[in-house]
Each structure stands twice: as C-alpha cells, then as structure tokens.
Amino acid sequence: MADQTMIGSTGATWLPALARRSEAVVIPLAALVLGLGLFGLFLLTQGKSPVDFMAIVWKGAYGSAFSLQNTLSRAAPLLLAALCVALPARLGLVVIGGEGAIVLGGVATGALGPHLAAVPPIVALPLLGLIAMAVGGLWIGAAGALRFYRGVNETISSLLLAYIAIALMNHLVEGPFRDPASLNKPSTLPLVDALRVGNLPGMEVHWGLAFGLLACVASWVLIDKTTWGFAARIVGGNVRAAQVQGLPVGRLILGFTALAGGFAGLAGFFEVTAVFGSANASLASGYGYTGILIAFLARHNPLAIIPVALLLAGFDAASGLIQRRMDLPDATILVLQGFVFLVILISDTAYGRLKLFHPERWA
Amino acid sequence: MRLSPKTLSRRHFLNGAAALSGVALTSSLPMMARAAAPLTVGFIYVGAKDDFGYNQSHAEGAAAVKAMEGVTVVEEENVPETIDVQKTMESMINLDGAALLFPTSFGYFDPHVLAVAPKYPDVRFEHAAGLWHEGLPTNVGSYFGYIGMGQYLNGIVAGHMTKSKKIGFVAAKPIPQVLLNINSFLLGARAVDPTITCQVIFTGEWSLAVKEAEATNALCDAGCDVITCHVDGPKVTIQTAAGRGAYVCGYHANQSALAPDKYLTGAEWNWAGVYTGMVKKVLAGETLPNFMRGGLTDGYIKMSPLGPAVTPEAKAQFDATMAEIMKGGYAVIKGPLKDNKGNVILKDGEKQVETDIKLESMDYLVEGVLGATS
Amino acid sequence: MEHDIGLWGIPIAILGGAIRVSTPFLFVSLGEVLTERAGRINLGLEGTLVFGAMSGYATAVLTGSAWAGVAVAALAGAVFGLVHGILCSLPKVNDIAIGIAMMLFGTGIAFYFGKPYIQPVAPHLPAIPLGFWSDLPQLQAALQVNVLFVAGLGLALGMAWMLRATRIGLTLRVVGDSTDAARAMGLRPNVIRTLATAAGGAFAGIGGAFLSLYYPGSWNEGLSSGQGLMAVALVIFARWNPIACFGAALLFGGAGALGPALQSVGISSGYYLFYAAPYVLTLGVLIATSSPNRAMAGAPGELSITK
Questions:
Q1: CB pair distance less than 8 Å for C218 and B202
Q2: What is the rounded CA–CA span in Å between residue B219 and residue B200?
Q3: Taking residues C70-88, what's their average pLDDT?
Q4: Which domains does chain B carry?
Q5: Which of B1, B79, B204 sits opposite A66 (nearest CB)?
C-alpha cells in the first residue's frame, strides 16, 4: 500500500513537471522542423531536392569531426557577440552596436600586443584580454551612460558608435598603427607566437569557444542567481518601479552595458590572438549583427544562446558545401535562416496555449 | 575529417615537400572525395562572381578550367577574409578532395593561406597577388600580373583625351597594388602632356556602391574628365562617370558595354590562359613555381579594344607604347621621379622595370597625383 | 581648368550629396514613422530596402520601364510590411525580433533571386535639371534632382499634415499611444498597426528602388551598406516627426558627401574619419538635444524600443 502511494505520488509529480519544463524545448524544436519544412517547399519550387539539401547541411555542419569543429569555430565569436545584446536586454535596453566593441577590442589587442613581446605570456595575454574588454566595455558602456545621464536612446547611439568605431579602426590600422611590411592587407604589427592563442586540446577550435561558453554560463548565473540580476530584471520590467524601490538604476545600466561591451571586446581579442595574429579591417565582419539575431532568438537567455549560436554557425559552416554540391547561390543559406528563424520567433505565440504543457489544465 | 591529415602528411612528406606529381595528388585525396576526376580544383572569391570586376575576372578563369578534361571545379563566392576562408579551404580539401586551391582575394594570404597550408602539405595553394618568399610553406605559390602596365596604357589614352588636363582615379585602399596603378595611370598621361595631374579619392572599402558613386561625382566636380578606378566592381564608377559626361577607362574586366561611347580602353585580367596553363602543369605532374608573375607579353593581362572616341593620335601612341612593352623590360617607374611630397624616389638614370619586385611594396604617390596615402 | 571652383566645391558637393544620397534614408524613415506612430517597430526595413532595390531593378530590366520598377518595389515592400504586421499581431511575438529575422529573409531572398540581374543594365529614373540657371557644371550636376526626392519632400509634408490634422492621423496616434484607449474608442489596434507597417514597407521598397534605379543606379549585393537600418534609427533622431525626418536625411546625405569632397580639394589625410562625419554629427546633435528629464518626448507610448 505504502509503496503504491509513493509510486502514485511521484508519478503525479514528475510527469507534470516534465510537461512544464519541456514546453521551452519542444516548441522551438517543432518550430525548427516546421521552418525546415517550409524551406523544403521553397527548394521544391526551385527544382532542388530538400532531402539532398538537408543531408548536405548535416554533413557540412555536424556530420563529421571536421564539420563539427568548423561549426564550433564559427560559433565562438557569436556567443560573445550575442551576450552583448542579451545582457542589456534584461534591463529593457536594445543595444545593436556590438560590432563596434568587437572591432575596438581587436584594435586594442593588435596595437598593444606587439609591445608586450618581452612580457611573459601568462601575464601579457590576460592583460591584453582585460584591455580589450575594457575598451569594448567603454564603448557600449558609453551608450548606457548616454541613456542614463542624457536620455539618449541606446539603440541609435550604439549603432552610431559602431559605425564610428569601424571608421576609427580603419584609420588606425591603415594609419598610425600600420605595419609598413603589411602590403596588400594593411594590418598592425604581428603578434609574437607566444601571444597567439592556440586551439583547445585535441581540437581544431581556438580557446575563444571555451571562453564564450564560460561567459554564457556566468551571465546566466549573474542574471538568474544573483541579486544584481534580480534587480536588473526589475529595472527591465519597470524603470519607475525600480527607482521607487530604491534600486541603483544608473549603476545597473552602466554595469550591464559595460559588461556586455566587455564580452564583445573579448571576441575581438580572440579574433586577433587566435585567428588573425594582427588587427585588420576584417575585424568588422558582421559578428556583432549576427549576435543581435541570436540574442533575440534565445529570448535573451544566456544559456539558450549556446544552442542558437551552434545552429546558426552550423548553417554558415554548411553554406559552402551547399554552393559546391547543389549549384545553389550563397544566399540560399540566408533564405534558409530567414524561414527557420521567422517560424521560431512566431512560435513564441504558442507558449501557454498548448494544454499538453500545462498540467493544471489537464483535468 | 581530422583522421587523415596528420598521418597522410607524414607519409607524403617523405616523398618530398614538393610531391606534386599527379600520382601523389590522387593518392593523397582524402577518403571522402566525391570526384572521380583525377584533379579537383577549388576557387574562392571574396565577392560575387559576376561583379564586372575582380571576382568576375577570376570566375572567367575558373570557367575555362572547368572546360578542361579530367578536372572538377568547385567554387565559393562571398567568402570573407576571416576564419571563414580558412574553413572554406579546409572544407574543399576534406569534403571535396580538392588538391589545388585558388583563394583569389588579396586578404586571404596572410594569415589565412599561410595558416592552413602547413596542415595540408599535399595540397597546392595558389594565391593571387601574395608575395611568396623563401621560408614560407613550399606548397604555397603566388601569382599575379603586371596590371600597372595596363593602367599606364589607360593613362596614355587618357592623356590624349583630357581637355581639362585633370584625370581622376577612384581607389579602394592605399595598398601597393593600388598605388602602382594610380601612379602608372598618371605617368601614362604625363607621357603625353607633363602638365596633367591626377586626382585620387580613396573610398576605404573594396566594394561600397554609394561611396564609389560619391567619389566619382566629387572627381567630376573637381574637373576631372577622364576617370578610372581600382575597386572590386567598377560598374558604379564607370556608369556614374559616363553619366556625368566624363570619359572612362576600365579595370579588371571589360566594361565597354556599360558606356559604349565614353569607354576608351581598359586594363583587363586574362586569367583563363594563366589558370588553364597552371592546371595543365599540375595534371602533367610538374611542380608549379612558387612565384609567378606575368604581363602583357605573357598573356596575364590584356587591353580592352579601343573605344570609338579614341583619336588617331592617341591610338598611335597607344600602339607604339604597347609594342615597346611587348619587347619586355619596360619601365614605367623611372628617374628622375619624386613623390607628391617632394621626396626623391629615383634619381636620373635609375629605373624599376615591370618585373622589379620593389614595385610590389610601393608606398608613395608620384608628383602630380593629388591625394595622400593615409 | 575653366571650372575650377576651389573650396567652393565643398558646399556644392554637400548640397549635391544631400540631394543624391538622402532619398533612400528619407523614404525608409518616413515609412518607419508611420509604423512607429502606430506603436510597432519594424527593424526589418533594411531587408525591405534591399528587396525593393532588387525587385525594382529586375522589373526595370525586364519591362524597360523604371517606373514599373518603382511600382513593383513598392508592392513588394508592402507585402513584406504586411507579413511583419500580421506576424506581430500574434500575441507574445516580439516585433523587434521579427524585424531582424525579416531583415535576414529579405536580404536573402533578394540576393538569391538577384544573381541574374547583377550584370544587365536597367533604365534609370529621370531627374529634373533644377540647376539650369547656373553656368557652373558642378552646380548643375548637384541640382539634378530626382523626381523621387521631390516626391519624398511632398510625402514628408503630407504626412506631417495628416498626422496632425486628419482622422487617419489621429487614429494612428491613438493606437500608437495606448492600445487600451484605442480599444475603448472601438478601434482595432492590430489591424491599424498592420496596415501602417504595410504602408511603411511600401515606402522602404521605393527607397530601395531609388538606390538601384537612380543612385548609384545598379543592382549588386553591396548596394545597401546598412542604409535601411540607419534610417530606422534616424526616426528616433527625428522624434517621429516627418519634417524632421527630411532634415535628418538631408543632414546625413550631406555629411556623407564631405569625405570625397574634402579629398577632391586636397584635404586627404584621415579620410576614414571624414567618412564617419554623418555618424559623429548625428550622435552630437542627438546628445545635444536630448535631456534626461523629458527622455523621449514625442515617442509613441506603445513603442517597445522606448518604453
């Protein structure tokens, strides 16, 4: 008898709990499948086989050790770029200028790195990383400060600051900081080998990925598990209420925007130390803008950023194979992303509507 | 596909770093190669394949290779100069079995080609415009053409056709290749009339339509009446300049269809011959040289047919100079020569002929060019 | 050298640049004013602009008529706007996020179907030579005013009047300021917002057609370097006022002409910094005219981005 009650009661608790928790997984996954299906229909109108297409995407993105590492390499900067949007979003701020912080973080690394050749790498690398974070933090923090102290809308100011940062980067890389020996691709002086960040053990993916994942987890802890994060969410809900509560709204805005910019700056640091070996104009390659999309798809949840970034990076990694194998233009992958992400975003409307996930309505 | 390269590379390394015989190539194809053809060649472009410019010129070369017997061509366009191009090269090698790669954009070379090449010693990386030198991976080669000669010929025609004695140049970035083109364009014009000046405007980007149009308008406003450019896709510059009534000289590819009345001539790449020649050598098992350059004589570049507006005097000097260049050893950059800040570049009697490697690290604009390098 | 006008070239270039470059900014930002006044934000107008440019160009190539291109671009833009509007009418769907996805979708579709139209040459939209009175070729060129620019000016004036003095304008403003108040008045906020977004999309499509069919006047994948996104941001700068949008677009276009113009008169060092002039100037004006107390005067109450 006692046993039966126990089984009965656990049965009654784990199933509803599972149902509740699975909503946030099942709905986006179903949307992903639906989006892929819609894109398949589009492919049929183009006279191409959706089955072949999906097989090639799988092969190019995740289907082999090489492809998986290709995807992971591409995801590394996207994680940090997405955090640059997701963190301020918790305060209700829409920051779209992460590109600027990435670029300047990279320039700072490229400009200072060559002067640290004599410093032990164990000191020099963290120092460079922190400087890149500081520069990026200053840039996005400026958008936060303008918002708080001057009432300047952060969406437009961060975008303007991003364009200004890119111009500054071009000027510095081709002017004052240019290595005269960099001929057809103007760049800063090259970093010494000791200051090049290598790959993760046993992988062909640089350390930026580990730091990106770490940053996502840390941000999740910050937002969901600390009083700072709690306060930030209150500010995001209602600024006036937060002020009435006596929350330090200004410090929260400055802190979160600066941290967000710091993460973007760190992405720039890894581009220079792990990929380029010097700073050049290719630092402005659009990661900051991709990050906006990822953050919104992840609903600004730092942990959700990880799978979304992997999905997006996987599509990018497969793009080349699609061009080569199916004779489709490079824009095909953009169309695919458009279909998939639209459906995933529309699926937001399904939350709370399906009885399956809401045990309280089962009866 | 990380299972093979290390082991494969060690084995083939024993065959010598330049193990580029056809046999070595086929035997080194990784397992996932889908091509039955003995040689898979990969072409990578930084922009769209049909941009009327740089990328199109290479894609036309790739099309010629595609038509060859026993060769499979794989292509990717719009590949940025980031880790993307590294992964694209590796993907072509690992998933398509490519054994010969042509990453065609300037910015692919350092660090990207140089980072990937050592991992795949059996694959040949041929880069346009890179400067290979002793000490770099031996499976890397760089090739390019003396297209400055073409801009010099453009300048000669421009020198005859300009009435304002001011010609214009829309340039992307102040890198050596671009500076050499600007200087050659002006020196060509000055071979006709030494009072001519050339206004240059840098747009700062290789492909940015609105800025190119604005730069062209600014040149027209400044009184320039013959205009050429060095950006990835000259279409906007050519159309805008012709629309303002200026004559135009083409670059990269033949743009005469865009402005039939105003198009004088143009400096074009002729990659079809170069690429088929290189692929033939690889198929025959020969080793490609690490450093290849060629000019008009070698068929690396060619001139667009002269347009209807070109005067007989202009044609005469154009033809005569062309004949001189075809003899080889021609020098556009020769003393006495000053830069536009007054520094002496070459003394009287000194010269740098078209093959001179020093030209590829040019960092000045010559006297008579209005503009600055940074 | 008879027409060498020296430093006078700079103001003339700024004037010319303002007229040439401003039109796409103007149309996109006017479209976004309509949308945002109704309480929604459509960040996807960059994608609409690019698709408008492509579809307009393709139509002009196929039909030989630039105006047919403009019409198709407007129609395509309206469809994009309609899709955005309908999707955002679903509960819990975030308009900013849908906009970003639409940006990707629009750009992707435009690039996908635009490949065959990179090469062909399309007829251009006509211009009105308003500089006929001057002997200076520079001024004549600067005052080559495109019909769409004039139409944009008319549209800005018309919209300002409409928003202030007409029933449609009042309806838009009510819906934008308070969903509850609008419902109380018997209005259907979602329908009105969707229509406003569709109209805004049509404007953005026309802005794109201007890019491909007049200036710079060709279709390629690098045609829009973020003009659509910037124009959406300019709406906040212009505080949702159509006339101010016209001013902002002119300022932006004129400042953009500074870089090439300065190089052409010999001020050539640091040109990247001159190219940043429109952004620095806009930011400067924004900082100067903002105030922490009246944070977002003129902002529609229901707008998610300024809440």
A1: no
A2: 8
A3: 97
A4: 5-145 (3.40.50.2300), 148-268+299-370 (3.40.50.2300)
A5: B1
Report the alpha-carbon distance of residue A163 to residue A141 in Å, rounded. 16
For chain B, the residues whose C-beta falls within 8 A of a C-beta of chain C are 47-48, 50-52, 78, 164-166, 199-204, 207-215, 217-223, 233, 235-236, 239-240, 243-244, 257-258, 370-372, 374
Residue the block writes with tokens 């800025």: B211
- The residue type at B246: A
Cis peptide before B111 (omega within 30 of 0): yes
CB-based contact B261:B307 (threshold 8 Å): yes
Report how far apart, in Å, the C-alpha atoms of C225 and of each of A253, B218, C47 are. Answer: 30, 20, 11
The CB density around residue C41, as the number of other CB atoms within 10 Å, is: 28
CATH number for C73: 1.10.3470
Q: Looking at the 3D structure of chain C, how many domains does it have?
A: 1
Is C272 in Cβ contact with A153 (below 8 Å)?
A: no
Interface A-C: count of C-beta contacts within 8 A: 144
C29 in any annotated domain: yes
User: Cα angle at C224 between A341 and C129, to 5 degrees?
Assistant: 145
Conformational region of residue A162, where left means phi above 0, alpha means psi within -120 to 50, and beta covers everything else: alpha
Instruction: Return the DSSP state at B118.
Output: G
Residue type, position C105, single letter: F
State pTM to two decimals.
Answer: 0.91
CA–CA distances in Å: residue A344 to residues A214, A352, C190 = 26, 15, 21
Show residues of chain A in contact with C279, CB under 8 Å.
Answer: 160, 163-164, 167
Calculated CA dihedral for residues A120, A122, A123, A128, nearest 10 degrees: 110
B17 has pLDDT over 50: no
Nearest Cα to Cα of residue C77 among C125, C121, C44:
C44
Distances (CA, A) of A158 to A94, A147, A225: 9, 10, 28
Contact residues, chain B, for C259 at CB < 8 Å: 211, 214
Is residue C121 assigned to a domain? yes
Of C87, C112, C279, the CB nearest to A331: C112
d(CA A54, CA A56): 5
From residue C161, give the alpha-carbon distance in Å to each of B9, B280, C164, C195.
Answer: 74, 71, 5, 19
Query: What would you measure as the largest C-alpha separation in chain A, in angstroms?
Result: 85
Whether pLDDT at A46 is above 50: yes
Rg, C-alpha atoms of chain C: 20
The single-letter DSSP state of residue C42 is -
DSSP letter at A286?
S
- Is C160 a member of any domain? yes
Tell me the shortest Cα–Cα distance from B245 to chain A, in angstroms. Answer: 32
Q: For residue C306, give both structure tokens.
A: 């300024």
pLDDT at A8: 45
Answer yes or no: do C268 and B372 touch at CB < 8 A: yes
Q: What is the pLDDT of residues C104-128, one digit of tens each?
A: 999 999 999 999 999 899 999 999 8
Distance from CA of B241 to the nearest CA of A (A): 26
One-letter amino acid of A7: I
Which residues of B, range 288-317, sit inside 8 Å of A by Cβ?
Answer: none
Tell me the two tokens of residue A86.
């997701």
pLDDT digits (tens, 9 = 90+) for A342-358: 999 999 898 888 888 88
pLDDT at residue A12, as a whole number: 64
3-state DSSP assignment of residue B301: strand
**C-alpha to C-alpha distance for C244 and C220, rounded to whole angstroms:** 31
Question: What pLDDT shows up at residue B5?
Answer: 36
C108 within domain boundaries = yes
Q: Across the beta sheet with B226-230, what order do the strands follow?
A: B301-303, B263-269, B247-252, B226-230, B166-171, B197-202, B369-370
Residue of A nearest to C88 (CA): A346
Give this complex's ipTM: 0.91
